[in-house]
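Hi Y.,

Following your request, here is the sequence exactly as I used it, all 214 residues.
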Amino acid sequence: MRSKVSHPVFSRVYLRLSEVMERKGGAEHRQRLLGNLAGRVVEVGAGNGLNFPYYPLDVTEVTAVEPEPRLRAAAERAAEDAPVPVEVVDGLADAIPAASGAFDAGVVSLVLCSVEDQAEALAELYRVIRPGGHLRFYEHVVAEHTGVLRTVQKIADATIWPRMAGGCHTGRDTLTAITAAGFVVEDLDRFRFPERPPQPAAPHVLGRAVRPVD
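Below is the corresponding structure, written out as C-alpha cells. Let me know if you'd prefer a different format.
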C-alpha cells in the first residue's frame, strides 16, 4: 500500500537546496549524527539519502523509509553508492513497516518538523527500536527562549511556511516530544544553522537518546 504523500514542488526545491546546505555545514552535522552506529538501523524520512554516505561500516543494514516519490527515487539512487546495505522503502513515520524491536537504532534528521503527528511517529520509533537501542536525532526546533524568534516561528507556522516547505513547522518542541515518547536523552547539542541570515528554522538540536531496557 502506497503512503500517498506527494510534494512535487517542494521535493524539486529540496533536492537543490539540500545540496547547498550540505556544503555549508550540513554534511558535518550528519557525520556527527551517525558516528559509532552499529547493527540494524531504521531511518525515517530518508529524503534524498543524504545520510547514506556517512553510515559507519559497523552498520549491517539500513531500512530507509521515505513516503515522497521523487525524494524516494533519489534515495534509491543514493543507496547504490552507500558504504553499507541500504533498502529504501515506501512508508510513513507512524506506520513503520517492521516488527517491534527489529532495530538496534533509529535515525531521524529534519523530518519530525513535518510529520503529521510527532507523538505517533515517535511511538512507532520506540516500538521498532529494541530496548537499550538508540535514537539519533538532528532536527530544527522551537527557539530555546521566548522572544522575537519564537514569535516569528509562530507566525511562519500559522501562515505560509508549512505550505511552502512540505508540511514543515518551525516551532515544534521536538526535544520534549522525544522524552514524552519514553526515550532518555543521553547527549544533546543546540545550535543555529545557518547562523546567518536569521530565519525561523535556524534553531537545531543534534543528539542521542536511548530506549530504556524494560
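The beta strands are 39-44, 59-65, 86-89, 103-109, 129-140, 184-192, 203-210.

Thanks again,
Q.
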